[in-house]
Amino acid sequence: MSDHIVRAYDEDLRDLAHRIAEMGGLAEHLVGEAVSALVARDTDRAHAVIAEDERIDDMHAEIEEKSTLLIAKRQPMALDLREIIAAIRISHDLERIGDLAKNVAKRTIAIDDEFRQKRLIFGVEHMAQLAMEQLKAVLDSYASHDDHAAGVVRARDEEVDAMYTSLFRELLTYMMEDPRNITLCTHLLFCAKNLERIGDHATNIAETVHYIITGERITESRTKKDLTSAVTADGIAQPDLSD
Amino acid sequence: MDMQVNDAVGQTATAGHAIKMRGEKVSVHYGEKQALFDVDHIVHDREVTALIGPSGCGKSTYIRCLNRMNDTIPICRVSGRITLDETDVYDPSVDVVELRARVGMVFQKPNPFPKSIFENVAYGPRIHGIAAGKSELDEIVTTSLQKAGLWDEVKDRLDEPGTGLSGGQQQRLCIARAIAVSPEVILMDEPCSALDPIATAKVEELIDELRENYAIVIVTHSMQQAARVSQRTAFFHLGHLVEEGRTDHIFTNPHDQRTQDYITGRFG
Fold first, then answer.
1. Degrees (nearest 5) of the Cα angle A240, A241, A243?
2. Looking at the complex, does the CB of residue B263 fall below 8 Å from at least one CB of chain A?
3. Is the pLDDT of residue B185 over 80?
4. Which residues of A touch B (CB under 8 A)?
5. Is the CB of residue B184 less than 8 Å from the CB of residue B20?
6. Closest Cα in chain A, distance from residue B79 (Å)
7. What is the pLDDT of residue A120?
8. What is the distance between the alpha carbons of residues B233 and B58, in angstroms, rounded to a whole number?
9. ipTM (interface pTM)
10. Chain pair A-B, CB pairs under 8 angstroms
11. Of A215, A235, B29, B31, which is the most exposed, with the fewest CB atoms less than 10 Å away?
C-alpha cells in the first residue's frame, strides 16, 4: 500500500499499529507471568501482574483516544477506516485479556496457603501454553496482516475449548477424591475458565484481522467445544441439544 | 478495456427503485481529445447517485451528457446512448429545452438570475407554460421554495433581488428554480463547493428530502459528502468509470485498488 498524500496521516496510522503491538506484547507478558506465578506459587510475581494490568488499562484508553482523534481529524475511508476500527476492537480484547491475567494472579494470592499437589496444576499449565500460543500467533497475524495465519488461530480455538472441558472434568474428579482439594480446584477451575476466555479473545482478534484484510465479517459460527455447561453431576458432558 | 466492477444487483434495480436514466457506452471527445471512454452507468429513480473522482476524471463531463449541457460546447462530441425512461435523449426529435426541464441542473456556483426571488422561481414555469394563472404560479413558487427549505427565510421579501441572498440561500434558490418546473431528475455539479459548512448541511438535508420524489445525481469532491448523501457511488478515473456500487460498500470495502487509493487520500 502506497503512502498517503498527507504524510502525518501515515505516521498517525503507524503510531496506532505500534501501540497495538506494544499493548499486545504486554498482554502476552502478563498472561505468561500470571501463569508462571500460579505454577511457582510466587505471590510477589502475582502482585506485580496486578500492578502491571493498570498499564494495559492506560494503553487501552490512549488507543481509544488516538483512534477517536484520527477519525475526527482524517475522516478515514476503506482500509484506513478498517484499521482504526480494528485498533479500537483489538485494544478492547487485549484490555480484557489483561483483566483475565490479573484475575489469575489474584487467585494465585488467594490459594497461597492451600494444600496443593503439583499434579493438580498440570492441566491448567498445559492449557495456558495453548492459550498463549494462540495469543502470540494472532498478534503476529495482526502485525503481518496475514489472513491465513488468523484463520489458523480461529480454527484452533476448538482445541482450547476441548481442553477446558476435559480439565473441568479432571478438576471435578480431584474434588470428589478429596474434599480438601475443593477450594484449590475451584480457583483452578476459574483460572482455566479465564484461559478459555483468553482463547476466545484471541479468536475475536483473528476475526478482526480477517476484517481488516478483506473488509468482510465472519458470519459462520464456530463449533462449540466448551461443553462444560452441560456437564452433569457424574462428570460426563451431555451434548447440548438446546443450541 | 473492461475495468468496471458492477455488482449485478445494482445494475438492475436496488430495493425496487426503477431505472430512471441509463448510459450505454458513452464516450465524449473534446476535439481530438477523448474525455470519456465507454461509460455504462445507471441512474435509479428516488436515489442519490454520487459521482466522485479526481479533477479531470470525466465525472462532470458525464453528468453534463445527461441533460445535453455539452451541446453548448461546439467541439464536444458525444457517442453511445443515453436514455431517460427508455427515450434516447440524443434523438433528433427530443426538444432539448423540455429535456432540461425534466432533467434539471444545479451548478457549482449559485447563479440566480438578476431578478427578484419570486421571478427566479417563476421564470421556468412561465416559459414552459406550466402555470395556468397568477394564483397557480404563486402556488408553484411557494411550494418550490418550501421544498428547497428556503420559504421561511424569504417569504417576507420575495420582491428583493435573488443575488442579495447569502451563498447558501442562493444555492437553495437555484434548487427551488430547478424544482419549479417539476423535473424528474436533478443533476448537481458540486453544489456545495462554494458554501460554508452550515449552508452545506442545509443543502445535504435538502438532498435527502428531495430523494423521496426525484432521482438525483451529484458530482462532489468531498468523499464524506458522497458517503453522507448518496445511496450509490460511481468512481471515475482518467475518463473511465472504474467502479460503481452501493455507497456503503464503496467507502468501506472498494474492490478496485484505484478506488481505494483515491478515497483514502493516496492519490488525487
1. 85
2. yes
3. yes
4. 1-6, 9, 74-82, 214-216
5. yes
6. 34
7. 84
8. 14
9. 0.72
10. 44
11. B31
Q: How far is CA A184 from CA A50, A110, B9, B183, in A?
A: 20, 9, 60, 78
| B55 at interface of A, judged by CB pairs closer than 8 A | no
Whether residues A78 and B251 touch (CB distance < 8 A) is answered with yes
Query: How far is A202 from A209, CA to CA, in rounded Å?
Result: 10
* Residues of B whose CB is below 8 A from A81: 251-252
Name the residue with higher pLDDT: A234 or A238. Answer: A234
Nearest CA in chain A to B224: A75
Position with higher pLDDT, B208 vs A113: B208
Q: What is the pTM of this model?
A: 0.81
Instruction: Report CB contact under 8 Å: B252, A82.
Output: yes
The radius of gyration of chain B's CA atoms, rounded to the nearest angstrom, is 18
- Confidence at residue B175, expressed as pLDDT on a 0 to 100 scale: 92
Give residue B5's pLDDT: 46
pLDDT digits (tens, 9 = 90+) for A80-135: 999 999 999 999 999 999 999 999 999 999 987 766 677 888 899 999 999 999 99
Distance CA A87, CA B202 (A): 34
List Cα–Cα distances, B30 to A234, B26, B36, B39, B71, in angstroms: 85, 13, 10, 16, 11
Strands B48-52 and B215-219: parallel
Q: Is B198 exposed, middle or buried (0-12, 13-18, 19+ CB in 10 A)?
A: exposed
Would an 8 Å CB–CB cutoff place B266 in contact with chain A?
yes
Query: Are residues A163 and A206 in contact, defined by beta-carbon separation less than 8 angstroms?
Result: no
pLDDT at residue B160, as a whole number? 95
